[in-house]
Amino acid sequence: MPTNLPADYYNAEERFRSATTPEDKVKFLEEMLSTIPKHKGTDHLRADLRKKLSKFKTATTSKKVSKKQVSPYHINKEGAGQIVIIGCTNAGKSSLVQSQTNAEPEVSEVPFTTWSPTPGMMQIENIQVQLIDTPPFSEEYIDPEFLNLIRRVDLVLIMLDLHTDPVQQLNFIYKKLQENRIAPQHLEGTVEVEGFLLYVPSLVVVNKYDSEEYEEHYQIFKQLLDREYPMLPLSTKTGHNMDFFKGTIFDTLGVIRVYSKAPGKDPDFTAPFVIEKGTLLEDFAGKVHKDFQDNLKSARIWGTSADFEGQLVSRDHVLEDEDVVELQK
Known about the structure:
Ubiquitin-like (UB roll); 10 helices; alpha/beta
């Protein structure tokens, strides 16, 4: 007997597959169970899900603390992108995380207040990205695990204090990165160095642009640099340029939002699928559910990538940001 599962079930299943903790697994399994129609055709499926639910609930209650010390820099990625903020002391890293996320790092004018990384989730329209506050760069020592975090994140924000020799700060940070075989991506092909160099996506954020009177300071700083950098001014104190900052992060991450809808129903615009730019329809279908990818016959598209609303498209159609997709098997 067919199960006739609704689209809400497949959306919850995709979140279950992407979950990394037992707590999240439990949450999405319970969501899957709540969407399944109750009839004979779903008896086996519901029984299987209950077994899985019991397993993960046991894992959450009996989880033992590992004797092995885990580095605080081993931070699981959450949201649409993982972003680390680096810089010298008092640049405003903690202020940014405190003002834009649910985290509460200690903020102080006293140098070297931050001693360990602090992650938090920042809202960008209807998605979230993970911001990680970090200890300031110092001449003496940088934890190797800190450097490993920089190597594996989706974006590195280099935060500078506009009022405390930002040129010196930027040169110091770039020097320390290069000493550890790391360089900003926009410098690829211009750095002369022996051996391997890992290029990471980066954005320079010039903080403490607290009013328009600092525009001249910002322009002088840019003129003193030896080349152009991906850069923007910001004020964590007043919120100046914060919307542009978030939009730039979204663009730099190279992701788009796509919404799935069932025939005859409205899409849920609060829960987009976040996928890479250039993703094809057939690959998106696989993220909704493997059955869709294998058995996809057609799809209707509403949005920027469609020539007209509800256009019928093929499997190799390239999706764009905020497309609405109705998959049909």
